[in-house]
């Protein structure tokens, strides 16, 4: 089953992907249609570079002309996050589409041009926002390079955690709108929610491999096994080291899981993992994001492309990648000298930057490269684990997979 998020001003839910609809027309300030359904459909078939070019050109039609008004955002370096939040949340939707001039209070403006200052501001603010020590985000179970929304964010910011997520949504949208990059990679299910792509059970694997494996096995439990396990319509959430019971439905702690409602239990568990546990934070992030961004424009991108649009194409050192690769199975004895392995590296070396980034996304779940290179890749258990190419016997003809 595939689900797509449905966003409203007061709610965020998951609905079957077959029921999802995105309104295609985009209307400008003069009530003139800027983009049609046919145009969006045709752009979806283009290359990533062509999509970006179209997106930027189309977005410019929504920008408020400098002569009609622009914004001056003043922040203090020692109060960067606080000042930035107040500035970004205090402006209207029209103000978000104006040109912004960023000023660090106490610093001469003539030393650097506006673009350099804005680029630094986006970098510093997003570094601060995605810093796990602030309690808004936490490293995902899949990779320390992928950040996931912290379900316990209200504990760290009891009075305004949702304001932070509305701010983050606006910040991400402004970065895209102004062709700036952010310093933080999110889990792939969040990119899917941004662009309205379907989320599925497979996305749970990237969030929590133990829950994924349990649910995959649970679908085949017989009545005796379910009786022994004594499952209810609940789940456990770790909150600052303490396990908390969450009801998946009202009164779920009193509803036994049986073979008759097992499919329903499975659906509720999946929906909780992909939305329910962070619903309140994600709703604010999306509302902030679409305060500026027109959703139909983003529909031309897939979830991997939106990560590249936000974070940029990474610089991938192929030599470093090869030196930190290990070989197993049928390839263990010959290693990179095995013909198949040679072919693999020949293909990778021929890839352009975009396709290398997409390969990295497939392998690690993100386009981010560890700051110290491929020697610092980590497995889902947090331990260092080198990129591995495993040769399977002819009897086991599985499609490529990542473990």
Describe this protein's structure.
The protein is α/β, with parallel strands linked by helices. The protein is 43% helix and 14% strand. Strands 7-8-9 form a 3-stranded mixed β-sheet. A two-stranded antiparallel ribbon has the order 1-2. β3 (26-27) and β4 form a beta hairpin. α7 runs parallel beside α13 (279-292). The longest helix is centred in the middle third of the chain and has 17 residues, at 161-177. It starts with a strand and ends in a 12-residue tail after the last strand. The model has no long low-confidence stretch (mean pLDDT 88).
List keywords for this structure.
single chain; 403 residues; alpha/beta; three-stranded mixed sheet; two-stranded antiparallel ribbon; globular
């Amino acid at each position: 089953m595939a689900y797509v998020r449905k966003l409203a001003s007061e709610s965020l839910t998951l609905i079957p992907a077959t029921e999802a609809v995105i309104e295609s027309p985009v209307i400008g300030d003069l009530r003139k249609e800027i983009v049609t359904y046919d145009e969006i459909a045709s752009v979806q078939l283009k290359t990533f570079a062509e999509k970006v070019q179209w997106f930027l050109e189309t977005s410019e039609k929504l920008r408020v002309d400098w002569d009609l008004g622009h914004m001056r955002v003043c922040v203090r370096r020692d109060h960067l996050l606080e000042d930035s939040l107040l500035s970004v949340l205090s402006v209207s939707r029209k103000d978000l589409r104006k040109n912004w001039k960023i000023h660090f209070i106490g610093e001469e403006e003539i030393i650097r041009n506006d673009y350099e200052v804005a680029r630094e501001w986006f970098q510093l603010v997003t570094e601060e926002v995605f810093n796990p020590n602030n309690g808004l985000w936490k490293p995902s179970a899949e990779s320390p390079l992928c950040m996931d929304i912290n379900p316990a964010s209200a504990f760290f910011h009891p009075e305004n955690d949702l304001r932070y997520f509305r701010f983050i949504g606006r910040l991400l949208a402004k970065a895209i709108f102004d062709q700036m990059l952010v310093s933080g990679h999110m889990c792939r299910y969040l990119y899917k929610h941004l662009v309205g792509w379907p989320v599925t059970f497979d996305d749970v694997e990237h969030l929590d491999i133990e829950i994924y494996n349990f649910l995959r096995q649970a679908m085949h439990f017989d009545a005796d096994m379910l009786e022994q396990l004594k499952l209810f319509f609940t789940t456990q959430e770790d909150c600052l080291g303490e396990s908390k019971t969450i009801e998946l439905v009202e009164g779920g702690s009193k509803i036994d899981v049986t073979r008759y409602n097992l499919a329903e239990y499975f659906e509720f568990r999946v929906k909780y993992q992909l939305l329910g546990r962070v619903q309140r934070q994600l709703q604010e992030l999306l509302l902030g994001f679409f305060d500026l961004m027109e959703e139909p424009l983003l529909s031309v991108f897939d979830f991997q492309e939106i990560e590249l649009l936000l974070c940029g194409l990474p610089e991938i050192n192929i030599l470093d990648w090869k030196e930190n690769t290990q070989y197993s199975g049928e390839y263990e004895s010959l290693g990179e000298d095995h013909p198949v392995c040679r072919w693999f590296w020949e293909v990778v070396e021929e890839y352009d930057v975009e396709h290398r980034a997409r390969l990295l996304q497939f392998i690690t779940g993100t386009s981010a490269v560890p700051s110290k290179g491929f020697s610092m890749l980590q497995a889902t258990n947090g331990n260092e684990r080198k990129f591995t190419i495993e040769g399977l016997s002819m009897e086991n003809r599985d499609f490529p997979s990542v473990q």
